[in-house]
Design a protein that fits this description.
Chain lengths: 306, 277, 443
């Protein structure tokens, strides 16, 4: 590869400029400038402003400073404990499923099987549909009486459960749909990762007489590390903050049995409890950060020696 | 070899069968419901329509509310294309520096990237800032919002894949006298192609399907985007399932076409051996 | 080799940028009729309402009627999603000063939550204010002024029943809970139709047992609403607790349709109109849906209030119509035009348009509008209660407090996930936040 790097275009670079360029880093910090500006103006400022509002009783047009009362109130929320539990279950199960299934599909879809192109497309189809569309469709397919799923089960003599109406099942059904919808992205990331693995490694391993399984554990798995890191981080954060699919499918119900933190906060905003819902957002942020930041540092450190 | 080929067939066929049940049936349902008449669709059954009305439904959807769906398409496509391009360029640059250069700023940048992923956007204060800048309710403002909220994800992806590009390439280019811009745009960016494609596909779908963003930051009839049009066919009192699903079908087409196009690019990127060294 | 590759790769990007720039440049409003094409001299005002076929028809008709009468004013209709998103948007728009010139929203406690004194333009001096019924006036006013004008009719919340089923089984309209229960038992024993239709697939429909029972509570304790606002009366105590108990009991007795957990409001309307269910606790406002979807069955649907335990306490709970408001951000010529529109909606002309485009689910709340001669049977069934003054406005019109989670709690109680006592207690907690937010005394 390096040998191909004597392109005609590069030769035209003038020689006299070279010494000056040497001293400057080839990786200028100003590459950060525009993203940094956007982040600060449209993200950091509003976010810090909202942190202040979490300390107030905020009614549309007036704010009254009430210290930490909102946080106290938020922690007294009766559905809070179950909300946290549901959030963790949701985040953990969706990330685990996306890592395992995504990797399997990534490997499968880069191996030599028939219909590979078709399979690659079809796995990604669900990603293309909006959450509202997916939510609506599955609400109908999972209907306990008229839904396709239970009708099919009934045809083979099984009485299907109320996927979204059984309090002990609703959360898991939404998790299933979330995986269905999100697996395409995980797979795509894994495919991109698989492609980056030099084919020579496998050829060398084959010469050495490695089995497929050995190659998977000794080459594929370690070299897919960056992809795995990305998938875990993204799906964990997505899972902890997840809201829109749950809202589209169960609105946190039946009752509060599939309520997650984000939907609790959303309902508070709807009711006009702005200060309270902002406090909820701060809590959610702290919780997600407490889980994700150490993990991210850990992953970064693992990668560093390479 | 013969054994291997047989295996590829068996695995392939199993995978295809599974994919039909798991992935295609829900799409078939959307399509069938979109093809039914109102009464027929109300049963929400997985059956062939008694009377095919797909084109009637699509034309009804398009004409609803003075062609609101058409306006929404223009808005959504403008928003998606522009913001994704900006996102890709900015994020690739930032992700690249973040991997290559070890400086004090990295910690801050890393923190921002994670924070951007973790912190839910604060709606009302963001609107205030946009109002101050005169960006609220404008397409450029909406584009910048999508870019800002999408950057984190993109930077994260770029960063992790830049790390798989050998530094020797940079060094060779530097020795040949390439400046930072040239180094990035002519050496690094082309090698990032598979990731660029991934980012384009994922973010385009995300922006195109974003519901809450435009709902809050681009309100009004002028700024309507495709996801909001779904509400025209859904109400508390009377659901027109056939039109609703025809609309879902319609607004899934652009992402589908885009994906079909880039899917080939992904395959091309793989066979060209761009990153294989 | 490399530069060639870059070119091939970069070109689509550049082309795409160019296309995007062109697209962004061309005015989006040029497609379709949504543009801001205000002709010279005309005042253009925007009117915001929640999406939905019924609202679309109504507002289109109002807009046409009004602009025909006032050619110098142009109306632009804007829609937003209904439900939670609608609530959130309404509040976001008000707090950022981006509200349309006129908007349509609930009256009563949800109106109070908008901080009318700071966010809405007072309409106290408008001529139509004197024509409002006393109840209506209070639910669109604060101590400082009146802010809204009704749009639509009042409606009752209680039990919609199928008259054909009642005739066939020889049942009588119940006046006490025991009679209601006896009817349900008979219907269940008969086994052909569902005694009580429930549709938790649309969670808001689960609240009727509680909300529709309020008039009965008020009959037993006329001060209940005031005490409730003052943090003295609670849902976890009688008489209010009874509503939760009744809901729990009807589920335990197996009176509900078997798909109650997933059925949607549509299904409920179908069941009560076509007689596959005998009772559907509901608002009469939904008669418009019956008129629309099952016109031939309109007069099969009757109405009675949710019966109290003691027949003497059975009263009808009445809802007041939603209203149209003008935000403070509407000023100058637009404000005048907006006021004109609001006044026109409740003029004789406006009422005629309302009646033609919508449907009637109870008496009007303003004297300038009168009921037509023929009304659905269920609306006729409301009349005796109105005549005998056995009626009370729903709690949300007497107290500013309404907890956001009632519908989830009633789903839990009605599905047997939670008990009546637990649900009522949870609702009392839910309400506390609202009271504190409003800064009420005693919380």
């Amino acid at each position: 590869m390096v040998s191909t790097l004597t392109p005609s275009g590069v030769q035209t670079a003038s020689n006299q400029a070279r010494p000056r360029r040497r001293r400057r880093s080839p990786y200028p910090l100003w590459f950060f400038a525009i993203p940094g500006l956007l982040f600060i103006v449209l993200f950091a400022i509003p976010t810090f402003a909202s942190f202040y509002f979490s300390l107030t009783r905020w009614t549309l047009s007036t704010t009254e400073f009430i210290g930490l009362d909102n946080f106290i109130l938020f922690f007294k929320e009766p559905t809070l404990v179950s909300g946290f539990t549901h959030t963790f279950i949701y985040a953990f199960l969706t990330s685990a499923a996306k890592v395992v299934l995504g990797m399997l599909l990534g490997v499968l879809l880069t191996s030599k099987i028939i219909g590979r192109g078709y399979l690659r497309s079809v796995v990604f189809f669900p990603v293309l549909v909006s959450t509202i569309g997916v939510g609506l469709t599955f609400k109908i397919l999972l209907d306990p009486f008229n839904g396709l799923v239970n009708k099919t089960l009934a045809a083979v003599g099984i009485t299907g459960p109320g996927w979204l109406t059984d309090p002990s099942l609703a959360l898991y059904s939404v998790i299933g749909v979330d995986v269905w919808k999100g697996i395409g992205i995980a797979t795509l990331i894994y495919i991109a990762g698989m492609v980056a693995i030099p084919q020579e490694y496998y050829e060398a391993a084959k010469v050495d007489g490695s089995t497929g399984r050995q190659m998977f554990f000794n080459i594929t798995l370690p070299l897919l590390r960056p992809a795995t890191t990305t998938v875990i981080l993204l799906s964990l954060i997505g899972g902890l903050r997840s809201f829109d699919l749950i809202w589209a499918m169960t609105k946190g119900g039946p009752g509060f049995t599939s309520d997650v933190i984000a939907s609790v906060i959303y309902k508070q905003y709807q009711a006009g409890f702005y200060g309270l819902s902002t406090a909820g957002n701060v809590v959610l942020f702290v919780v997600v950060a407490a889980i994700v930041v150490p993990m991210s540092i850990y992953f970064n450190r693992q990668e560093a020696p390479r | 070899m013969k054994h291997e080929r047989r295996r590829s067939w068996i695995v392939g066929i199993i995978a295809i069968l599974a994919s039909i049940v798991i992935f295609l049936v829900p799409f078939a349902f959307i399509f069938l419901t979109a093809s039914k008449t109102v009464k027929d669709a109300a049963d929400l059954a997985f059956t062939l329509p008694t009377e095919w009305a797909l084109f009637e439904n699509i034309s009804t959807v398009l004409q609803t509310n003075q062609f609101v769906v058409l306006r929404a398409f223009i808005n959504s496509i403008t928003l998606t294309v522009t913001s994704v391009i900006i996102m890709v360029v900015l994020a690739a640059m930032a992700g690249y520096i973040l991997d290559r250069r070890k400086s004090r700023w990295n910690a801050i940048a890393n923190f921002f990237v994670l924070a951007g992923l973790i912190v839910p956007p604060a709606v009302v204060p963001t609107i205030w800032v946009m109002q101050m800048l005169g960006l609220f309710k404008t397409m450029p403002g909406m584009i910048l919002i999508e870019v800002t909220f999408g950057l984190s994800f993109c930077i994260l992806l770029f960063k992790s894949f830049v790390s798989s590009i050998p530094r020797e390439l940079d060094e060779a280019a530097i020795v040949d006298g390439a400046g930072p811009l040239r180094l990035f745009f002519s050496v690094i960016l082309p090698l990032l192609k598979p990731v660029v494609v991934t980012v384009i596909v994922v973010q385009a779908v995300f922006v195109f399907n974003d519901f809450a963003g435009p709902l809050y930051f681009l309100p009004g009839n002028e700024g309507v985007t495709v996801q909001l049009t779904l509400y025209n066919f859904q109400s508390q009192t009377l659901n027109q399932w056939n039109l609703l699903f025809a609309d879902i079908l319609l607004i899934t087409i652009p992402p589908l076409v885009m994906y079909m196009f880039f899917n080939r690019q992904i395959v091309a990127g793989m066979t060209s051996g761009a990153v294989k060294g | 080799m490399l530069p060639v590759r870059i070119h091939r790769f970069a070109r689509p990007l550049l082309a795409a940028t160019a296309i995007a720039t062109i697209l962004a440049g061309c005015s989006v409003g040029s497609v379709g009729g949504g543009g801001d094409s205000g002709s010279a001299g005309a005042t253009n005002i925007t009117v915001l309402y929640g999406t939905g076929t019924a609202n679309d028809t109504l507002f289109k008709a109002l807009s046409d009627g009004f602009t025909a009468a006032n050619p110098d004013i142009k109306l632009t209709l804007e829609t937003q999603p209904t439900g939670t998103e609608g609530d959130n948007l309404t509040k976001t728009k008000l707090s950022t000063g981006e509200m349309a010139d006129v908007f349509y929203y609930n009256s009563g406690s949800l109106f109070q939550a908008l901080n009318p004194d700071t966010n809405l333009a007072p309409l106290t001096d408008q001529p139509w204010v004197d024509q409002l019924s006393a109840e209506m006036k209070t639910v669109v006013s604060t101590p400082n002024g009146t802010y809204g004008a009704p749009l639509g009719t009042t409606f009752a919340g209680g039990v919609l029943y199928n008259k054909k089923v009642y005739d066939k089984l020889g049942l009588k309209v119940p006046t006490s809970w025991a009679e209601f229960d006896a009817n349900n038992k008979k219907i269940l024993a008969d086994g052909k139709v569902t005694p009580i239709e429930q549709t938790f697939g649309d969670t808001w429909t689960s609240q009727l047992f509680v909300l529709g029972d309020f008039a009965n509570v008020a009959a037993q304790d006329p001060n209940w609403a005031a005490d409730y606002t003052a943090n003295k009366a609670k849902y976890s105590d009688q008489p209010a607790l009874q509503a939760f108990k009744n809901q729990q009991q009807t589920h335990a007795d197996g009176y509900y349709n078997k798909n109650f957990a997933s059925a949607k409001f549509d299904d409920g309307v179908k069941a009560i109109a076509t007689g596959t269910a005998a009772h559907y606790p509901m608002l009469t406002a939904v008669l418009s849906t019956v008129v629309q979807n099952y016109p031939e069955n309109v007069d099969d649907v009757g109405f009675f209030p949710l019966p109290a335990q003691d027949a003497a306490n059975t009263q009808m709970t009445l809802w007041l119509p939603n209203a149209i408001y003008i935000p403070k951000t509407t000023e100058g010529a637009k404000l005048d035009a907006a006021k004109k529109f609001v006044a026109w909606v409740n003029s004789t002309e406006g009422c005629a348009v309302q009646q033609k485009a919508g449907s009637v689910s109870g008496p009007y709340a303003i004297s300038s509008c009168t009921l037509p001669d023929s009304v659905p049977a269920a609306v006729k069934d409301m009349q005796p209660y109105l005549d005998n003054k056995k009626v009370s406005p729903a709690l949300e019109f007497l107290s500013p407090i309404k907890g956001p989670n009632l519908e989830n709690i009633t789903v839990e109680v009605g599905s047997g996930i939670s008990s009546a006592e637990k649900g009522a207690k949870q609702y009392d907690e839910d309400v506390k936040k609202q009271a504190q937010q409003l800064g009420l005394e005693g919380w």
